[in-house]
Specification:
The chain has 149 residues and is α+β, with helices and mostly antiparallel strands. It folds into two domains: 75 residues, RimP-like superfamily, N-terminal (GMP Synthetase, Chain A, domain 3, 2-Layer Sandwich); 59 residues, SH3 type barrels (Roll). It has three helices and eight strands. Strands 7-6-5-4-8 form a five-stranded antiparallel sheet. Strand 6 and strand 7 form a beta hairpin. It is globular, with a radius of gyration of 17 Å. It starts with a helix and ends with a strand.
Length: 149
């Protein structure tokens, strides 16, 4: 799968610059694709960070050429409403308010919003109103942090 190939290619590049490759997505569209690379660090992400990573990623992508068609590269922070996909993502967002959608219903329900209380191997626990709900990570279709201002 292209996504896995891109992650394998770009994680060492981004990590070598001192950033975390939070997420990436490749979208095909008329006139060429769009490769979005989301980076993070404990110190936050600024424009200079994005430019630095963009130059390094461009060089590696030009050399490896994993995408045959023309594409545009965007590098940015994952933002306050960041996507949560991996166990590592969830672990970094303990105590955050999150919105989760499952692939298949659990007890007749697919959507959950609540406070992320804990992360164990293969599952997360949310505080949803007065209940604690355990959700298997592999059953999660989409998950995002809900910004609290």
């Amino acid at each position: 799968m292209l996504r896995d190939q891109l992650l394998e290619l770009l994680e060492p590049v981004v990590g070598g610059l001192g950033y975390e490759l939070w997420e990436l997505e490749y979208v095909t569209r008329p006139g060429g694709g769009l490769l979005r690379v989301y980076i993070d660090s404990d110190a936050g992400i600024g424009l200079d960070d994005c430019e630095r990573v963009s130059r390094a990623v461009s060089a590696v992508m030009d050399q490896a050429d994993p995408i045959a068609a023309a594409y545009t590269l965007e590098v940015s922070s994952p933002g306050l409403d960041r996507v949560l996909r991996t166990q590592r993502h969830f672990a970094r967002c303990i105590d955050a308010l999150v919105r989760v959608e499952l692939s298949t219903p659990l007890n007749g329900r697919k959507r959950f919003s609540g406070r992320l209380m804990s992360v164990q191997p293969g599952q997360i626990t949310l505080q949803v109103d007065d209940d604690r709900v355990e959700l298997p990570i592999e059953a999660i279709h989409k998950a995002r942090v809900v910004p609290e201002v």
